[in-house]
Design a protein that fits this description.
alpha/beta, Nitrilase/N-carbamoyl-D-aminoacid amidohydrolase, seven-stranded mixed β-sheet, six-stranded mixed β-sheet, 8 helices, 26% strand, globular
Length: 310
């Protein structure tokens, strides 16, 4: 058994320093409860930019309020080889846990500087960054705030209790991206979402069946009150009964598509689940192995560029 912890809480929106502090506290708490793999949702460090989906004037050229919020987002994005990243690596070492989390990642030097990526990182219990994935295609209005990623992070890593991989949000609807990850022979797939709507459940469940793997679907919490005050929310959201813009919905699927942990919504919490031994997965792959006996390499050929762009 492998104990999984899903951190379904609200980050301190657009405040990286305070979000790191909150995240480290969660890591220690989850470790004390026996977690071996701790998961944070898409963009948790320091908050998925949900304002792009709901606020007025997002697409207006040169709008001062939108530019100001993006600049704050950039200043509070996580950077590789930074004190904030080191703090997370130290937390993994101190707690002897593996961390998989989403982040707004910035580049400030060299080619690609002044760019924010929608990124995912896997830090192992020795503090080493084993996966650094940048979302290959920002979805719809995410293109206003995020740059195009690359194929470098499309891989799985064996952590001793199984091979782990991850994709971010709508990458789960990119067939060739899915096949690339299935070719990595994942045992446990972590699907990072801002919050988990019905269509996100569909994609996560399908991935479990197609890949014959466990799928951890992680969503986060974001309250209406956390949207930057200089942005305008629509009247229907302001007057709605819900306090949430993003309401979690985290869950876990078995390789047959059934729920191991049903969706938990509208609550801040740390969710725990003891995942069965991955050695049992071979049974599920008898009737479907999309990178094995159900593959036709004599007909289909997939080439993937896994070079880091920047």
């Amino acid at each position: 058994m492998t104990k999984i912890a899903i951190i379904q809480t609200e980050p301190v929106f657009n405040d990286l320093s305070k979000t790191i502090e909150k995240g480290v506290q969660h890591i220690h708490e989850a470790a004390q409860n026996g977690a071996q793999l701790i998961v944070f949702a898409e963009g948790w460090f320091a908050g998925y930019p949900a304002w792009i989906d709901h606020c007025a004037h997002v697409g207006r050229w040169d709008h001062p309020d939108i530019k100001a919020v993006w600049a704050t987002m950039f200043q509070n994005s996580l950077e590789l080889n930074s004190p904030e990243m080191t703090r997370l690596q130290e937390a993994a070492i101190q707690t002897k846990t593996n961390l998989l989390f989403g982040a707004n990642e910035r580049i400030t030097k060299g080619i690609g500087n002044n760019t924010i990526y929608n990124a995912a990182f896997l830090i192992d219990l020795k503090g080493d960054i084993q996966i650094h994935h940048r979302k290959t295609m920002p979805t719809y209005n995410e293109k206003l705030v995020h740059g195009l990623g690359d194929g470098h992070g499309l891989k799985s890593v064996d952590l001793g209790f199984g091979k782990i991989g991850t994709l971010i949000c709508w990458e789960h609807w990119m067939p060739l991206t899915r096949q690339t990850m299935h070719d990595e022979n994942e045992d446990i797939h972590v699907a990072l979402w801002p919050a988990i709507l019905d269509r996100h459940l569909l994609a996560s469940r399908h991935y479990a069946v197609e890949g014959r793997c466990y799928v951890i679907a992680a969503g986060q919490i974001l309250r209406k009150s956390s949207i930057p005050g200089n942005l305008e929310l629509p009247k229907e959201i302001i007057e709605s009964n819900s306090e949430f813009i993003l309401n979690g919905g985290s869950c876990i699927f078995a390789p047959d598509g059934s729920y191991l942990l049903e969706p938990v919504s509208d609550v801040e919490t740390i969710l725990y689940y003891d995942l069965p031994n991955v050695s049992n997965l071979i049974q599920e792959r008898m009737n479907l192995a999309v990178s094995g006996h159900y593959q036709r390499p004599d007909i289909f050929e997939l080439k993937v560029n896994k070079k880091r762009l920047f």
